[in-house]
Design brief:
Helix 2 runs antiparallel to helix 3. By secondary structure, this protein is mostly helical. The protein has a single domain, classed as Ferritin, CATH 1.20.1260. Helix content is about 90%, strand content about 0%. The radius of gyration is 26 Å and the shape is elongated. The longest helix has about 50 residues.
Length: about 180
């Protein structure tokens, strides 16, 4: 009976480690998506600043709209990431409890199976969200392909112009033509 119980605990530890590896990978993916979306939001905000500096308010408004879209995505990914991070911490605590022998094996078995069900449900929800996100990206790509992204092109041109102006000013300073 005790041998059987120890074998059950060992198999639970192995299964829990497998779940933990998968959960950590999902956590890292969510963090990367959050980070990417946040970076894009900041990039579009900077583009809006350049457009305002050039007096192109219509482009600035378009860039701010894009920044808001990316910020919204970033907020959703951050929420999912924090949720997943909490789940990973709970799995780690359960694993430590199993490895140190805290608690009864029967309660551990019940806890692990319940956690496994929760993990599977969370993964299924994440897969559905990812599928919806893929569909949205495909839709945006199709729209962009059909309409060409004039906003991005105009803002890229403004960015390039702004960069060239800064380089020109720096060149003039180095040559002594411009003081300051």
């Amino acid at each position: 009976m005790i041998i059987r119980s120890r074998q059950d605990v060992r198999s639970q530890i192995i299964e829990l480690k497998r779940l933990l590896v998968s959960a950590i990978a999902d956590e890292q993916k969510l963090y990367q998506r959050y980070s990417d979306a946040d970076g894009e939001a900041n990039r579009w905000k900077k583009r809006a600043e350049i457009a305002v500096g050039k007096g192109a308010d219509d482009l600035a408004m378009g860039a701010l709209a894009r920044a808001n879209q990316y910020a919204s995505r970033a907020a959703e990914f951050e929420r999912q990431y924090l949720e997943q991070k909490g789940y990973v911490e709970r799995l780690k605590a359960r694993l430590r409890a199993l490895e140190t022998g805290v608690g009864e094996p029967t309660s551990i078995v019940a806890g692990c199976s319940k956690r496994a069900e929760i993990a599977l449900e969370a993964l299924e929800r994440m897969e559905r969200r990812e599928e919806r996100a893929r569909e949205q990206r495909a839709m945006f790509a199709a729209i962009a392909e059909l309409e060409r992204d004039e906003l991005a092109e105009k803002l890229a041109a403004l960015e390039q112009e702004d960069q060239l102006e800064r380089q020109l000013i720096e060149l003039k300073r180095r040559l002594g033509v411009l003081k300051g």
